[in-house]
């Protein structure tokens, strides 16, 4: 097993990704998210482990991400979500991981989905960011914001509605 760690730093940006290459060629990865940012799916004081897992599955189902119905979601008491499953293509896997992480109360997502590499860049939105500004930072061309928007559908429904702490998928140019 080989270990790979990548820290992405840009202004206030920080997303940590640690992955382990598995014998089947897939990856097991651990992604860090901002626990206080994201969709509020449950009351932190009242939700049980089962409530959180049910709400996360409903959230994935509501987004209509292909293959999301094939994953298992487990939540621990510290805000870590472990997701597992098989037969999910890489780009859908990336969307599932980001959709789960962009939920208030989730601090880490551990990827145990078989197959498909998650070798993409991620960006954590900071106050004042727009998709155009992010495209300018990562691609050098603000007009490429549409690529970022498309890579983050269906989690993003409007290119003007992003929020600080949200993690976005940044596709290769």
Automatic annotation (TrEMBL):
Q: What is its main location?
A: cytoplasm
Record-linked CDD domains: LysM
Q: Where is the LysM domain?
A: 121-170
A Pfam family hit: LysM
Q: Which residues form the BON domain?
A: 48-117
Superkingdom of this protein's organism: Bacteria
- Listed InterPro entries: Bact_Kbp, BON_dom, LysM, LysM_dom_sf
**Which keywords fit this entry according to its UniProt record?**
Cytoplasm
The Gene Ontology CC terms held by the record are: cytoplasm
The yes or no answer to whether the keyword Cytoplasm is present is yes
Location comes to: Cytoplasm
Instruction: Show the NCBIfam families listed in the entry.
Output: PRK11198.1 (NF008399)
Q: What is this protein called?
A: Potassium binding protein Kbp
Q: Which organism is it from?
A: Arsenophonus nasoniae (son-killer infecting Nasonia vitripennis)
């Amino acid at each position: 097993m080989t270990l790979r760690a990548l820290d992405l730093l840009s202004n206030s940006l920080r997303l940590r990704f640690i992955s382990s290459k598995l014998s089947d060629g897939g990856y097991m990865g651990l992604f860090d998210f901002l626990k206080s940012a994201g969709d509020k799916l449950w009351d932190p004081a009242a939700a049980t482990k089962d409530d959180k897992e049910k709400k996360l599955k409903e959230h994935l189902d509501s987004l209509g991400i292909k293959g999301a119905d094939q994953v298992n979601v487990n939540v621990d008491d510290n805000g870590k979500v472990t997701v597992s499953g098989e037969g999910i293509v890489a780009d859908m896997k990336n969307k599932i991981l980001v959709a789960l992480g962009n939920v208030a109360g989730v601090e880490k997502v551990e990827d145990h989905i078989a197959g498909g590499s998650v070798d993409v860049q991620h960006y954590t939105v900071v106050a004042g960011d727009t998709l155009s500004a992010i495209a300018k930072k990562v691609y050098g061309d603000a007009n490429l914001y549409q690529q970022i928007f498309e890579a983050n559908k269906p989690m993003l429904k409007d290119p003007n509605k992003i929020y600080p702490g949200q993690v976005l998928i940044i596709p290769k140019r």
